[in-house]
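Quick question, first post here. What does this chain look like in 3D?
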Amino acid sequence: MTDLLVVTALRTEYAALNGHVPGGRVERCGMGLHRVGEWLPRLAEPRPSALAVAGVAGGLDPALSPGDVIVASEVRDAVGRSVLRSAAPLVAELRRMGLRVRSGPMVSVDHIVHRTAEREDLAATGALAVDMESAAIVRAAIKGRDRTSPLPVAVVRVVVDTLHSPLGRANTVVAGARALQILRRIGPALSRWAALSGPRQVVVAKPRSFCAGVERAIDIVERALQRYPHPVYVRRQIVHNAHVVRDLERQGAVFVNELDEVPDGTTVVFSAHGVAPAVRAEAAARGLNIIDATCPLVAKVHSEARRFAGRGDTVLLIGHAGHDETEGTLGEVPGQIQLVQDPLEAERVQAEDGHVAYLMQTTLAVDEAQATVDVLRRRFPSIASSATDDICYATTNRQNAVRAVARDADLVIVLGSANSSNSLRLAEVAQRAGARAVLVDDATELLPEQLNGRTRIGITAGASAPPHLVDEVIGTLQALGPVSVAEHVVTEEDIKFTLPKGVVG
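> Answer (accepted):
Ran it through. Tokens below.
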């Protein structure tokens, strides 16, 4: 059983948690740096295998409300900064419990912060909340530790007072009582998190993460933001990844679903998934400054659709209904393209042999798409197709890489957003290769139950997922225990795409 030590400062915090952390021991260090200093020698009696600092705190971020839970990604004080990577699965667990959870920096100071002005100054540093003990405890606990003997550490605080509801107001007592109730609920989750400590083997698939089309699309938006007056509008998500979208929003991009949300005369970027000609015509008629970030490989499928339809073929598009890419391709020749999603639909589709062609969405699973193609070729022996593969090189390469990694893994972690077709396909390919697979946006979506008992872990990322997300997951695992990391390389990619007019020159 993991020797989890939970440290609290206040008697009320101790009372809320004592007896409610299965398999763990709860100790009270006292409030403030002086009391912490007197308590610190107890860290070695006995030395824990996991440590959590838990209690209440003052909120700094204006968006916080009493009762919100802060899981620190790092703790700071006047002495320095300690990064806490191991707590990411605790974030996922607390969110699953229905709690409002934020993950980010916390700051420790040597006094109770009453003044609003001081809180605003601390908030300006990016810290979410303030306490008096966490940074000193964490620093002492991890001193001398390295990757061969990491100590999993978490700092969890429930917000009592905020910028809008400071200490001393009548509702402080009520908010404090509620915070302690929430703290008691957190106790069992701390035990489930601490049980994750232990050694693991990690194999990272290569290629992974951004492909040339995604890099090009992001570069286009960033260049447009530098070149044209703000705001710059982007129709639909530029690529299907929440982290990419949030980062571009911070830079000034405004994402919209349809053109009627874009003011006349402004700049609009079309996403990497492509758009139908009708959308382009509407944008041109309204005098919008159009910048096209359509992936060249998607544009190739559009061109083939026009070619096949132009010679009178019935065009069958193998893809997923509702996906931005399929909508754009279907709109190339309205009424002349039929969507076929799987082998069952391929058995029912009506067309005349000798006058039928098929195309594919570029982000399909190769093996599943082939099953649909096999049905179409059986039913229509003369069916035509593109001279080159429609499924893009990046999709194929990443699927081959994750398949190789999955063979020896008891868990494959796929980094990518839930609306990312290529990321979803990676998880499916890993499962068909015999491994359990989970698709998560980042490390804070990894639930303890997904990691518990998994010692051979494969990691990859969809073509729309930033590379740093892989590094963060590896960092989380390394903070939970000794980890050996290897890379399985299937192929190297060196493809680059040129940028469109409007963002160069």
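The radius of gyration is 27 Å.
Residues 200-208+393-489 form a domain with the Cobalt-precorrin-4 Transmethylase; domain 1 fold (CATH 3.40.1010.20).
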